[in-house]
Structures are given as C-alpha cells and as structure tokens.
Specification:
mainly alpha; Arc Repressor Mutant, subunit A; two-stranded antiparallel sheet
Length: 109
C-alpha cells in the first residue's frame, strides 16, 4: 500500500499533513456499533430482560465485545489499531525539518 502526504497551502506557508487515519481495504464492517447501543445492550442483559446472545443481535453489538464489556464494565469505544508511534507534534517537526532543508516529504509504506 502506498500513501503520500497531502500538501495544503494557506496564505503564509505550505503545510504537509501526514496520513494518520488507516482505512481497511474491502467492505468489511468493523466497530459499526455505538456507545449508546452498547450501553442499551448491557442494561438489557444486566436487568435480566435479555441474554447476551439476544442483546447482541438486537442492538447489533458483536457477542464477544458485549461479553467482554460486561465483565470489564467498560463502555468507552476506543479507536481501532495501535496509536501513532511518533505522535502528531513530532510528525509536524519532522515535516518542518524536511521542508527547511528542501526534502520532498512523500512517504510510502
């Protein structure tokens, strides 16, 4: 997969935006549930109105996710994948350094 940094121009300088959001190839849908759906499913299971399997189907939250979240008590939806190794501030500094010495910042992974 090859991804190039985007270059945007404003009135004073050029700014390069590093690609930090990964998109999966294909039509696989992952993590399409919301925190509200998860909370409603967890409440239905805890109140005894539904089992985990039924709540999973009804609220469209994966069975394993619902079970794990019930055990942990965690309802916060986290991003998929690992976080950026460098961080946005360090990436910005690298780009600025490249521009200072005249290096074109095109990245291919």
């Amino acid at each position: 997969m090859s991804t190039a940094a985007e270059i945007t121009e404003n009135s004073t300088s050029k700014m390069i935006i590093m690609p930090t959001n990964y998109r999966r190839k294909g039509n696989c849908s992952r993590a399409t549930w919301t925190e509200v759906m998860l909370k409603m499913a967890m409440q239905a299971v805890r109140s005894g109105n539904m089992g985990v399997n039924e709540a999973s189907r009804e609220f469209k939250v994966p069975y394993t996710t619902l079970r794990r979240r019930l055990v942990r008590g965690d309802t916060k939806k986290k991003s998929l994948g690992s976080p950026s190794v460098l961080g946005l501030e360090n990436e910005r500094k690298i780009v600025e350094g490249c521009l200072t010495v005249g290096i074109t910042c095109t990245f291919s992974w």
